[in-house]
Each structure stands twice: as structure tokens, then as C-alpha cells.
């Protein structure tokens, strides 16, 4: 029979073997790369996923090899035309050299802090060389590419590769934006007033031209009317003269009837004339002659 001591020793040996075996094995995930440390000093980097072995006294640190995001707080940048810009940017990066990354920064938090400083410096350098319009409209894509190249070059010393840099927003500060808006509003109001003044001037010119043409047309029409009226009066006088030459008594009678008609149109038949006036010559005699004076009394 085995003694109890032998069983206990066997269990202890088995436990030690299991502990040593467990501490000699580590697993690398597909999204990770692992640094093997010996007493705190890195001795190897494992990038292949799967089960791996190490010395029991060695330790491991897992480093993410996926693309990571770097959110950068909004920064004020001064463009080359001395315009102040509020720039909101972010970057994406991955750890390409785990050993260099571990010996230089050591953690994601420290890497983000260091990259934020480098990104802000690169933003100020690149955007400070161009004017406001270039940043917000004309060449933003090219500027982001330059910032990424500079940041990637500086981050290489930390074992980091910068994949992309993007500028979400590049705009004037709120107070500057309001001042620009007010200036643009004033400029548009000035242009509108100028257009209205030009329109009023043009309208005045058109009205003046129309009034001048209307005056000329009316004058020409009046001249033609006067000429036509004069020709009509001349023809009428000719006809009257001709009629007068043919029958003087009838012409005198006609003129008297016309005078009676014109005088009695208003409905007022009162006249301040002598009864024997020439105007009433046809009232007392059908042939228009004055009645002969009464014979003088015989002596």
C-alpha cells in the first residue's frame, strides 16, 4: 500500500507540473500581438495567432493590432491671413511595431496623449501656411493628406502607423462668425440698395423718355388736328362764301337760325337787346326785312 505521504507528494508534484505547464502556454488572438517579457524586459514579439509556449518565468503583454481611433478636442488655429479657426479633427492609427511601442509609450492611453500633442502641432504647422478659404473650401483634402504624412513620420518613432487624419469642421469662432455674418449682411444690403438706386435711375430715365415721346406725340397730334381743323374751317368758310354768293338772303337767314339755336340751348330765353335789334330781324318779318316806318302825319 501506498503511504499517505506518497499520495500527498504526488498531488503536489502534479500541481506543480500543471502550474508550470499553464504558465508556459499563452494564446495570441487574431486581433492582438503579444510581447514576451523576461523579468520586465521584452525578449520576443509574437504576431501569429494561436497557442504558443514560453518559459514559465516569462510574462506576456497583449497589444491590439487593429485600427484605433484618436479623438482630438477642438483647437484654435491661426491661418496665414491671421483668421482664427476652430478645427475639429480626428485620426486613425495602428501599432505596427509592438516592441518599439512598448518601450516608448507602453499603453494606449499614453499613445493617445502623445499622438494628440503631435496632431495639434501638425495642424498648426500645415493650416498656418494657408489662408482661411483654402482650409474651409478649396484644398482640405490635400491639407489632410499633408497632416497625416507629418503625423505618421513623427509617430513612427513610437512604433505607430497613422492610417488617416480627417478634419470634421474648420470654421471661425462663434463671435467671428457673427461678425462675418453681419459684414456679409451689410454688404448684401449695400448691394441691394445700389441695385435699387440703379433701378430707380433706369426707371426715371425710361419715364422721362416716355414722357418726352408722349409730349412729342401729343404735340404732333395737336399740330395735325389744328391743321385738319384749319383745313375744315377753310373749307367751311369757302362753302359759306360760295353759298353766300349764290343766295345772300338764304345765307343770312341760315346764320340767324343758327344763332337762335345756339342762344336758346341753355333754356334761358332772356336777352338784353332792343326789340328792333338786327338779331330779331326774322321775328317780325318772314323775309327778314324790317317793317317800313309808319307814315309821317300829314300837315
TrEMBL record:
Domain Band: 23-184
Transmembrane spans: none
A matching Pfam family: Band_7
Membrane topology according to the record: Single-pass membrane protein
Residue ranges of coiled coil: none
Record-level GO cellular component terms: membrane
Any GO BP: proteolysis
Keywords: Hydrolase, Membrane, Protease, Transmembrane, Transmembrane helix
Record localization: Membrane
GO MF terms, alphabetically ordered: peptidase activity
Recorded superkingdom: Bacteria
Similarity remark: Belongs to the band 7/mec-2 family. HflC subfamily.
Primary role: HflC and HflK could regulate a protease.
Name listed for the protein in its UniProt record: Protein HflC
Organism: Bradyrhizobium septentrionale
Amino acid at each position: 500500500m501506498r503511504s499517505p505521504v506518497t499520495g500527498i507528494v504526488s498531488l503536489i508534484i502534479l500541481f506543480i507540473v500543471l502550474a508550470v505547464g499553464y504558465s508556459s502556454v499563452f494564446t495570441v488572438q487574431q486581433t492582438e500581438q503579444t510581447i514576451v517579457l523576461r523579468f520586465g524586459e521584452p525578449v520576443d514579439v509574437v504576431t501569429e495567432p494561436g497557442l504558443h509556449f514560453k518559459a514559465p518565468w516569462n510574462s506576456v503583454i497583449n497589444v491590439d493590432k487593429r485600427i484605433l481611433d484618436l479623438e482630438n478636442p477642438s483647437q484654435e488655429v491661426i491661418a496665414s491671413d491671421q483668421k482664427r479657426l476652430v478645427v475639429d479633427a480626428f485620426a486613425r492609427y495602428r501599432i505596427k511595431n509592438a516592441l518599439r511601442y512598448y518601450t516608448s509609450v507602453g499603453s494606449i492611453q499614453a499613445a493617445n496623449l502623445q499622438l494628440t500633442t503631435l496632431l495639434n502641432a501638425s495642424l498648426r504647422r500645415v493650416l498656418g501656411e494657408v489662408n482661411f478659404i483654402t482650409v474651409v473650401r478649396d484644398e482640405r483634402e490635400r491639407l489632410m493628406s499633408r497632416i497625416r504624412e507629418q503625423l505618421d513620420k513623427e509617430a513612427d518613432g513610437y512604433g505607430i502607423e497613422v492610417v488617416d487624419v480627417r478634419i470634421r469642421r474648420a470654421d471661425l469662432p462663434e463671435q467671428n462668425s457673427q461678425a462675418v455674418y453681419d459684414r456679409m449682411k451689410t454688404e448684401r444690403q449695400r448691394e441691394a440698395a445700389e441695385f435699387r438706386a440703379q433701378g430707380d435711375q433706369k426707371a426715371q430715365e425710361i419715364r422721362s423718355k416716355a414722357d418726352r415721346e408722349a409730349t412729342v406725340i401729343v404735340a404732333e397730334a395737336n399740330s395735325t388736328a389744328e391743321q385738319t381743323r384749319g383745313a375744315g374751317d377753310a373749307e367751311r368758310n369757302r362753302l359759306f362764301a360760295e353759298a353766300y354768293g349764290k343766295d345772300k338772303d338764304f345765307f343770312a337767314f341760315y346764320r340767324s337760325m343758327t344763332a337762335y339755336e345756339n342762344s336758346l340751348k341753355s333754356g334761358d330765353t332772356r336777352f338784353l337787346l332792343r326789340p328792333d335789334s338786327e338779331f330779331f330781324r326774322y321775328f317780325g318779318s318772314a323775309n327778314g326785312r324790317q317793317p317800313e316806318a309808319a307814315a309821317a302825319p300829314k300837315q
